[in-house]
Amino acid sequence: IIEAESAWNEGVDGTDVLVGVVDAAVDYSQPQLVTRLAKNSGEFGANGGVDDDGNSLVDDEFGWDFHGNKPQPTISMPAPNKGPNEHGSHVAGIILADPNEGSIKGVAYGARLIPANFMDNEGGGTMSDGIKAIRYVAARGAKVINASWGGYSCSENLRQTIIDVTTNGNGGKGIL
């Protein structure tokens, strides 16, 4: 049970907290999410087609799509006869939906979102892309990282990545 209302009544709403959502793409056209996006000041409004912040990812203004190796798309493109994978948007909404833009109030509605997609429309992705995505949001300053996905086992690389970002932010390692 989440007792979010008790926290809200005490003034805790996630303000000044950066949350990384490592999952499927996030739909930026969703009004309750677009206001919560954390803009990468090193890239935002800068030179298009140039890696202005030097992180090896060109134009990652709002996030990065590690599955497609490009700036975070607004939402995963649907596969033939399938809809888009909306799990990233769903998770982001639970965490930080802006109540001023709709009827849902995210648990930490004052937080800012750093999306990092590493999944396809069926919810599949590689562990190496998931690890890159975790390191990316940590390097961008996320103090909370949602990775609500699973698999058959936890690799040693994933375990070490979690230890690194938990104890050292990004473990002193580069994103890629």
* Percent in helix: 25-40%
- Structural class determined from secondary elements: alpha/beta
Strand arrangement within the widest β-sheet reads 3-2-4-1-5
How big is the Rg? 16 Å
Distance between the termini: 37 Å
Number of strands: 5
Characterize the overall form: globular
Instruction: Return the string of H and E elements.
Output: HEHEEHEHEH
State the assembly state of the protein chains: single chain
Largest sheet features: 5 strands, mixed
In DSSP terms (H or I, runs of 4 or more residues), the helix count works out at 5
User: How big a fraction of the residues is strand?
Assistant: 5-15%
Overall mean confidence score, pLDDT: 86
Q: Which stretches of 5+ consecutive residues score pLDDT under 50?
A: 171-176
List keywords for this structure.
single chain, alpha/beta, 5-stranded mixed β-sheet
Could you characterize the architecture of this molecule?
- The protein is an alpha/beta fold and 176 residues long.
- Helix content is 26%, strand content 11%.
- The protein contains five helices and five strands.
- It has helices at 4-9, 31-34, 87-96, 127-139, 156-168; strands at 18-23, 64-65, 70-71, 112-117, 144-146.
- It has a five-stranded mixed beta sheet with strand order 3-2-4-1-5, with helices on both faces.
- The longest helix has 13 residues, at 127-139.
- It is globular, with a radius of gyration of 16 Å.
- Residues 171-176 have low confidence and may be disordered.
Give the SSE layout.
Blueprint: H1 4-9, E1 18-23, H2 31-34, E2 64-65, E3 70-71, H3 87-96, E4 112-117, H4 127-139, E5 144-146, H5 156-168
Parallel strand pairs: 1-4, 1-5, 2-4
Antiparallel strand pairs: 2-3
